Input
Amino acid sequence: MAAVDVPGILTIDGVPLKAKLARADRTRKLRALGLVLPLFAFILLTFLIPLAVMTFKSVKNDETFGRLDRTKEALADWDQQTIPGEAAFAALAQDLQDAQKMRQAGEIAKRVNYEFAGAQSKFKAIARKVEKMQAGPYKEVFVATDKVWSDIRLWRIIHSASQRFTSYYWLSALDLREGADGIERAPADQAVFVDVYGRTFWIGGIVTILTLILGFPVAYLLATQPVHRASILMIFVMLPFWTSLLVRTTAWFVLLRTEGPLNDLAELIVGMRFDMIFTRFGTILAMTHIQLPFTLLPIYSVMKTIPPSHIRAARSLGAGPFHAFWRVYYPQTVPGIAAGCLLTFILSLGYYITPALVGGPRDQMVSYYISYYMNNVINFGQASALGATLLIITMVLYWLYNRLVGIDNMKLG
Amino acid sequence: MGTTNDPFVTFTDVQKTYDGETLVVKNLNLSIEHGEFLTLLGPSGSGKTTTLMMLAGFEVPTHGRIEMGGAEINNLAPHKRNIGMVFQNYALFPHMTVEENLAFPLQVRKLAKDEIAKKVQRALEMVQMPQLAKRRPAQLSGGQQQRVALARALVFDPKLVLMDEPLGALDKQLREHMQIEIKHIHERLGVTVVYVTHDQSEALTMSDRVAVFNDGIIQQLAKPSDLYERPENSFVAQFIGENNRLSGKVASVNGKSCGVTIADFGLVNAIPVGVQSVGSPTTLSLRPERVRINPDSGAYANQFDAEVQELIYLGDHTRCRVSVLGNSNFIIKVANAEGIPSLSPGEKVRVGWKSEDCRALDAY
Output
C-alpha cells in the first residue's frame, strides 16, 4: 500500500522501480506465452476454428440462400395462408432456370427435400420443364405438372429456405419442426433424435456404473498390495489400455459372433447359442471393457494417498470392517470416483466405433448419426446441429455435476 | 474379569513370524499391571511395534497367548477389544472435523446424541482445544493434531491405550511438552498405557516401567531409574543413556565384587552382573558422570592414568574425552561447578571411579 502511494521510487541507476519491475516481468510473461503458444495455435487451428465453422453450418441455408433471391422477393409479402400468385411461380421458375444453368438445382432440391419428403424429384422435374420455357404463365404449368405445387406447406418451406438463417436443423435435432402455428412436434416417423440421445445417455450411464462396480475393488486391491505385486497387476490393467480401440472392438466382434468362441463355450455348457453380436448387451460389454481403466486409474491414484493407518484407526476405535470402510475409507475415495466416472461417462457419450461394430441398429448412439449425416447424406447442417446439441447437453451435465460434487474435489491422478 | 491384583494384560510365550523363517518376536513373556504406563523401547526392527500390533489386534501371534482381563484375545477382532490407539501419524480422518473425529468411536458404540456431545466436549477440554472443534485436521498444526488423536483414543473411556511413537513427528520442544502432558493425563485418568518409542529419554521421562527390546527379545524390564543405574546387559547399558565401555577378562569373582583385567593396562574392580566364571570375557559399563578427574588418592577403588584428548563445552557441563586403559573414546562429564580445575587437551590426569558404579556385563 505504502509503496503505491510513494510516487517514483528509483533504482540505483535512476530508472523508476515500477518500470524496472514491468520490464523484468515482461520477459517472464513472454516466455510463459511462448511456451503456451504452439499448443494454443494448434488447438485453435485444428479444434476451435473447425468447431465454430461447423457449428455455424447448423443455422445457415448454404444450399439455397442467394439462389432463390427472386422467389424470396416475390414471397416477401406473402400471407402464408393461400397459394402464392403467378409472380411467385414466375420468380421460382427464373431462379430454377439460373440454378439449372449453374448446376445447382439438385442442391436446392435436396435442401427442400430435408423438410418436405419427396420434394427432390418434383423439383428436378419442374426444373427440367421450366428450363425450356421462355414466358409464363408458369403457375398453370407448375400445378399441371404436379399438384404438390399447390401445397402451401411446400411454399412455406421454400420461403424459409430462401432466408440466410434457419432453425430447421436445431429443431430437428430435438424432434421439433416449424408448423403453421409455430413450433410443433415432428411426426412420430421422423422423431428419432430424442430417442437417440436418451439411448446415448442411458448406455453411457450403464457403462459408467458397470466400470465403477468392476473397477473399484480392483483399484482397492492394487492400492493395498505390496509394490512389486501391484505393478504386475497394474500391467494387466494397462495392457488393454495401450491397445488400440479399434483392435479391441474387433476382438469383441470376433468373441461375440454367433459362431464365436463365447458361443462355442455356451453351446458346450448349456447347449445353446445366444445372440450377443449386434445387441445392446454386446455394446455395453465391449464399452465397459474399454472404459474400465479410465474409471479405475483415478480411483486408484486417490486410494494410493489414503494411509492404511486410517482403517486401522477406525477399527481400533470400535468400527467393524464394513463400517470402517464405509465411514472412513470410502468418503476419501469420492474425489477419485467422481473423476473416473465423469471421464468414462463423457467419453462414453462420444462412442462411435464400438456400437457401430458390435451393436445393432437400435444401439447406435448420437455419434453414429452425426457420422451418418456427414458421410452418407452429406447434410452438414444436421450433423453439426446434432454434435452441438450433444456438446451443450454434456456441458450442462458437467455443470450440474460440478454443482453436486465439485470439480475442486476431483482428482485425476 | 480378574481382580485388580492380577495383571491386566499378559503375554505368554508369544512368538511372531511374518515369513516363517525369522522370528520378529521371540518368546515374549510380559505382564502389564492395571493403570501402568509401560513403554516398549528399542531400535527399529526390534519387535516392539509388532508386539503393540498384536495387542491391538492387527497382527495375530504365531504362537502363544495374549490375555486381557483374564480372557484370551488372540483372535478377537480389533474393534471388539475396546483399546484406544494413537498412531504414529495420528491417522485423523481428513474428511471429518475435529468434533466428528472424536464423535466417531462414540457413534460406532451407538451412544445417545447428547451424551456424545458431552463426551466430545470433555475430551476437547482435556487436551485444551475446545475452540478448534469445527476445524479439519489439515487446518491444525502437528501438535494440535497430536492432541486430537490423543483425545480420540481416550474419548470412549478405554481401559487400555496404545501409543505407537505418537510424538515422533513433533519438534523437540513440543515433544517434551507433550510428554509431560500425556504423563499428566495418564495420572489423572488412571488408564493403562502401552507406549512404543525408540527415544530413550522419552521412555525414561514418561514410564512407570520400560521394556527394552532388541532382536525380538525383552532385554530388560525395569523402572527407568533401574534401567539407567543398573543395566543388566551391555545392550541396555549402551542403549540407555551415555556409556563408557571397557572390554576385559574376568580375573576373579568374589561375591559382590570382581576383578577384571584390561589386557596390558591393568585391573579394574567392578560388580559382577553378567559374568559367569573366571576367564570369561566381559564388558565393563560405566556412566560418564560417575568418573572423577584427579580424585584424592585412595578415594576410589579404581584409579588410573589418563590423557585428555578433547574438551567440548556444553554450558552446564563439559564433555571431556580422555584415553584411559587403551580406550581413547572414554567420556567424562565434568559438571560446571566451583572448584573444578580447568583442563586442556594433552594434559595428563588421574581418573577414578567406585567399583559399585562399574558393572561387569556380558561380552556383547
Remarks:
- Chain B has a mean pLDDT of 90.
- The longest strand of chain B covers residues 302-313.
- Chain B touches chain A through 27 residues (CB under 8 Å).
